[in-house]
Amino acid sequence: MNRRHLLATAAFGLSLAFGGAALAQDKTKACFVYIGTVTDGGWTQAHHTAVLKAQEHFGDKVDFMWQESVPEGADAERVMTQMALGGCDIIFSTSFGYMDPTNAVAAKFPDVKFEHATGFKREHPNVGTYNARFYEGRAVEGVIAGRMTKTNKIGYIASFPIPEVIMGINSYYLNAKKVNPAVEISVVWAYTWFDPAKEADAAKALIDAGVDVIAAHTDSTAPLAEIAKTDGKVIGFGQASDMAEYKPSPRVTSIIDDWSPYYIKQIQSVIDGNWESRDTWDGIKEGTVGIGEFTGLPDDVKAEAEALRDGIAAGTVHPFTGPIKKQDGSDWLADGATAPDGDLLGMNFYVEGITGDIPK
Amino acid sequence: MDFGGINPVVLIASLMVAAVPIMLAALGELVVEKSGVLNLGVEGMMIMGAICGFMAAVHTGSPFLGFIGGAAGGAVLSLVFAVLTQGLLANQVATGLALTLFGLGLSSLMGQGYNGIKPPLTGAVPFGPLRDIPVLGRILFSHDWVVYFSIAATALVWWVLKATRLGLVIRAVGENHDAAHALGYKVQRVRLGCILFGGAMAGMGGAYISLARVPQWTDGITAGAGWIALAIVVFSSWKPWRILIGAYLFGGISQLQLSLQASGSKIPVGYLSMAPYLITILVLVIMSSGRAKASLKAPAALGQNFHASR
Amino acid sequence: MLTLEKRPTPSRFWTAATPVVAVLLTMVAGGIMFMLLGKNPFEVIRTIFWDPLFGEFAWYLRAQLLVKAGPLILIAVGLSLGFRAGIWNIGAEGQYIMGAVIGAAVGLAAFPTENRLIYPVMVLAGAFGGWFWAMIPAILKTRFNTNEILVSLMLVYVAQTILAMASTGFLRNPEGSGFPGSRNFSNYKAASNPELIAGTGMHWGVVAAFVTVIAAYVLLQRHLLGFQIKLSGQAPRAARFHGVNPTKLTVLCMGISGALAGLAGLFEVTGPAGQISIDFNVGYGFTAIIVAFLGRLNPIGILLAGLIMALTYIGGEMASTNLGLPSAAIQAFQGMLLFFLLAVDVLSNYRLRLFTAGAGPAKTKTGGAS
User: Fold this and answer.
1) Fold type of domain A3-132
2) A134-257+301-345 is classed in which CATH architecture?
3) Residues C364, B88: C-beta atoms closer than 8 Å
4) Mean pLDDT of the C331-347 span
5) Residues of A in Cβ contact (< 8 Å) with B21
6) Verdict on whether the full-model pTM lies above 0.90
7) ipTM of the assembly?
8) Which of B206, B274, C280, C325 has the largest count of CB atoms under 10 Å?
C-alpha cells in the first residue's frame, strides 16, 4: 500500500464515521440525482413524479432529497459523494452518463446503496441497475402506426445512435410491418436530447416527406405540438409522460415512464434491510412502462393495440420474435425465438427492411 | 416540384418560419451594437421573452398580447444590463453573460406551473384566395403575422439606420462616442434606448418560439437560439438585410439537413448536423474575403463604455 | 444630482473592498429571493458561502473547489490574453472539447500499453487539439478577414457533434457492449490523471492552472509580448508603430488560449470526468469568459474569480440538495452575484459625487474591454 492509498483510506475512514452516524438515525433517506430539471416535461419530470408518489407512499418514514441539473462526470461524482456524506441510505442516479461516477462513489461508501438507471455496470456489491423495457411500448406504437398510416410512411425522431434508441426504432418498425408489410420508416437524428425548436423542425421535415405517424425519442413535447398543426392528418405519441394536453388527437397513446413501483420497492427493501444488488429490467407487466389511454383510434385498431399490450404484460408476446434478419440480410433470430436481453441492450444494427445507416 | 423527395416550396416556406426567432433577436442586437454596445445576453433576454410572452398569452387569451408581453419581458431584463453598463459602467461582455445566466434561472422559476399548457394559437394571416396561388401562395401568403413583421422590421431597421436622423445619431454614438458627445448627443440615453429595443426584439423572438414555433413552455426552450442570433449579427457585418440573408441561410440549412434525413439521403448524419454551422462559416469567409475590408468593420466603439465627467 | 467622477488612479481600498460589498449586497437581494421561495434566507446563504469552506464536510468540498475552479482558471487565463489584445475567442468550449477528444484518442490508441511517456504525449495532443481548433478562426481572420467571434462560436457546435460521433463511434469503448462513451481512464494507469495527493483535489490540471496564472502574470508584467498585447488592446495604431505585427499577435493569442482550453479538456477527461461521453462538456468554456472579466483580465484576479465561481457552484448545489431549492434559483442567484460584482466595480475607478459645477466637459473614455 503506497502513501497515496493510505491517505485516501484515512480520508474516507473519516467519511465512514459520518456515514455511520447517519445510519444510526432511524429515518431512511433516499436521494436522487437528476440530469434535467423537475419541470423539463420529459425524462427527469417522469422520475420526479415517481419520487413524489414514493414520498406520498412513505409519508414521514423516509426523507427524500434530490439535485436537479447535475452534469455527468466530475460534478455527478461530487453530488453523489455529498449525498453519501450527508447521510443518504440509497442514492438513485437517473441518467446513463452517471454510470462510472456511480460506481466510483459506491466504492468509497460500501454502506450506502446505489441504484443506477439505464446502465450495465455493477462493479460493487452495493450497486444495482434498473431500466425499463421501453421497446415494449414502441411495439404498441408500431402496431398503431402500421394500421393508421395512409401513406405507408412512418417516422421516428431519434436523439443519438445508442442501443436504447436503436432498439426502439427496430421494435416500432417490426411491429408496424407485421400488420402492414408495405410500411416504410424514415429516421431523423436530431443529435440532441432536448432542443424543442429542432425537435419540432424534425417532425416538420418528416411530415413534409409524407410521413403521417411519428414517434419521438427526444425529451420535449415539441414534436406533438408540431404534429397538432396538421389538423389530424398526422398522429403521434406521448413520450415519457402522458402528454394528455394533446388528447384525443394527435396524441393517440403514450409511453409513460412510471418508476414509482420500482422506487417504492427498493426503498422498502432498504428499510427492511434486505436490499440486494441486481439488474432490473421491468416493462409493461410491472407497470414501469405505462401505456397511456388510447384516444382517437378506430375500435379495431384500439382492440389490436390493447391485445398486444396485454399479451406483452402476460408474457405471451415478445416484440422481438423470430424469424428476424438484420439489415444486411444475415440471420438474427430463428423462427419462434425471442431476443435475448444481451442482444437488445447492446443493439447496434437495424433489422431487415429499414433503409439508411445508423450514424457512426 | 420535387428534388430527391424534398419539395423546395415547402422548404422555403418552412425556413421563413424557422428563421423568425433568430432574425428578430439579431435585428435587435444589430441596433444595440450599432450604438456601440455589445450585449451578449441575447439568450437570456430571449428566454425571458419566451416565458413572459407565454404567460401573457395564456392569461389574456390573446397571442398578440403575448408578443407584447414577450417584448416587455425582454426589455425589462435588458434594463438591468443598461443600468449596469451605462449607469455603473460595468464591463459589457461579462454583464451580458451574467444576464444569460440570470435569465435562464429566472425564466425557469417563473415558468413553474406552466408546463403542459397550450397557449392560444397564432393563426395564419387570412389572405383568402391568394394563398392558393401555386408556389407563391405557399411561400408568401401562408404565414402568421410575425413572419411578415420580421421582414417589415428588417426594412424598418435598415431605413431608420440609413435614412433618418435617429439612425445617424445611433451610428455616430457607436462609431465615436466622444465626438457624438461633443456634438451634444446624449450618448448614454441613445444607448439606453437601443438596449431596450434590443431586449424587446429578443423577447419577441423568444415569444415566437414559445407561442408559435413550439407552442408550449419548457425550461430552456430557446436552447441556444440567442447564441446563433449573436453569430448572425456578426455574419451580417452589421447590415440589416444581411441579417435576413444570414437567418434564412442558417434556418434553411438547418431545415434542409433534417429534410435530407427524412427523405433518406446517403450523406452521413454527422456531417449533415454540422452543416448549418460549417456552411455559415464558409459563406462568411467568401463574403468577407471578396469585399473591401472597410465595409466589414464593427462599430468602432463596440464594447467600450462611455463616461463624460463634468 | 449624483454623478460619477473618475479617479486619477484606481482606489486601492475599493479595489479590495468591492468584492466584499458585492457579496453582501447579493446576500441581501438573494436572501429576499429565497424568502419569496419560502426558504430561510440565512440558512441558504450559510449553505452557499460558509458550508463548503468551513462546514462539516469542508475537508471534502475544499478539494472539490479546486477541481471545479481548475479548468475555469486555466481557460480564463488564456482567454484574457486575447481579450486584452482585442481578439475575441468565445469558442473556448469547442477548443476544450477538441483537446479532450484528440488527447483521449491518442491515449486510447496506445491502450493497453503501460508506458510513462504516454501521458506526456497525450498532454501535448490535448494542447494541440485545442490549438488546432483555435487556429481555424485565427487563420480565417488573418487570411480572409473573417470575424473570429462567429467562427469560434460556430465551431463549438461542430465540436459538439464530433464529440457525439466520438462517443458513439470512433472512441466508443469496445468492451462497453454498444453503449456510448469511451473507456474510463481511471482504469488505464498510463493515461490517467488522478489526484496527486489524495483528498486534496490537486490533479495535473489544477497544477497547470496555478502555473499558468504565474506565467501569465510574469508575461504581462515583464515580457515584451505582454506589453505588446496590452498596447494592441488599448491603442491598436500605436501598437503598429511599435512594430507589433497584428497577424502574428492574433495567431499567438488565439493559439495560446486554444491550447490552454485544450489542456483543460485533456486534464478533465483523463481525471475528474474519466471518459469521453456525449455530454462531456459542461460549459466551462463559456463560464471562463465571465471568470476572465470578473478577474479584470488580470491573472491573479482570474484565480480569485475562478474560486468564487466554483464556490457558488458547489455551495449552490448543496443549498439545492439539502434545502430543496430549485436549481434555477441557484442559477438566478449566481447571475445576481455577478451583477453586483460588476456593478460595484465602478467604485474602484470612480467616486460618487453630488453634482458640482465644473469647468468645461472633460471627457474620458473607459475601455470596456480592459
Assistant:
1) Rossmann fold (3.40.50)
2) 3-Layer(aba) Sandwich (3.40)
3) no
4) 91
5) 197
6) yes
7) 0.91
8) B206
